[in-house]
Amino acid sequence: MNERFLRSIRLLSECYQRFEQVSSAHVRTVGLTPSQFDIIATLGNTAGMSFKELGSKTLITKGTLTGVIDRLEARGIVTRTVQSEDRRSTIVRLTAKGESEFKRVFAPHVQHCKRSFLAYGEADFAALERELAKLKAHLEAAHRQSDEAEKKPAQVPANSTNAGQA
Predict the structure, then answer these.
(1) Are 10 and 3 in contact (CB under 8 A)?
(2) Are the CB atoms for 30 and 105 separated by under 8 Å?
(3) Three-class SS of residue 164?
(4) Can you give the pLDDT at residue 36?
(5) How do strand 49-50 and strand 90-94 relate by DSSP bridges?
(6) Element (H, E) at 78
């Protein structure tokens, strides 16, 4: 089996893994884990957000998110506030210390990661973004089709109850 798309998917995956390695190594040099940085970067310049919103924006799983928030809260970087309108909803916000941490780490990290893209010109970025957007749209369509297929009840062929009986 020599499927052409597999080479492209592999290359895309390898690029993502290499970028994560470059990013994670730098994040660790500033004293954070990648998940901690992700939360601080996501909450930076916002009034805070719910666990659900934070989970969807960071792509950190719910179980992991709770533990990371616990550790950031213990360090005084984030705070949790239960919403008075909906006690099931908790808003996570950066504290003053968290805002300082965001300012300390975010811009330098962006500059560090940007180095990998210095050889790219505007046309390169436009072409890359166009192709990635096209791939994303196709993958989202395939996902929707899979979801729809899973929701449909299994079709039982006519006369299947008598199959094999003579």
Answers:
(1) no
(2) yes
(3) coil
(4) 97
(5) antiparallel
(6) strand 78-82
Q: Where are the alpha helices (DSSP H) in the chain?
A: 4-29, 34-43, 51-58, 62-74, 96-114, 122-151
Question: Is residue 155's pLDDT more than 70?
Answer: no
**Positive or negative: CA dihedral 26, 67, 80, 87:** positive
Token couple for 16: 């993502």
Contact between 55 and 61 under an 8 Å Cβ cutoff? The reply is: yes
User: Is the confidence at residue 15, as pLDDT, over 80?
Assistant: yes
What digits encode the pLDDT tens for the residues 62-109? 889 999 999 999 999 999 998 777 767 899 999 999 999 999 999 999
Cβ within 8 Å of residue 64, ≥6 positions away: 35
Domains and CATH numbers, the chain: 4-117 (1.10.10.10)
User: Degrees (nearest 5) of the Cα angle 18, 21, 26?
Assistant: 135
Please tell me the pTM assigned to this model.
0.79
CA 156 to CA 160: how far, in whole Å? 7
Q: How far is CA 104 from the centre of its chain?
A: 22
Running DSSP on this structure, what letter comes out for residue 121? Answer: -
Q: Which two structure tokens, joined as six digits, stand for 54? A: 């934070």
The owner of tokens 């730098």 is 26
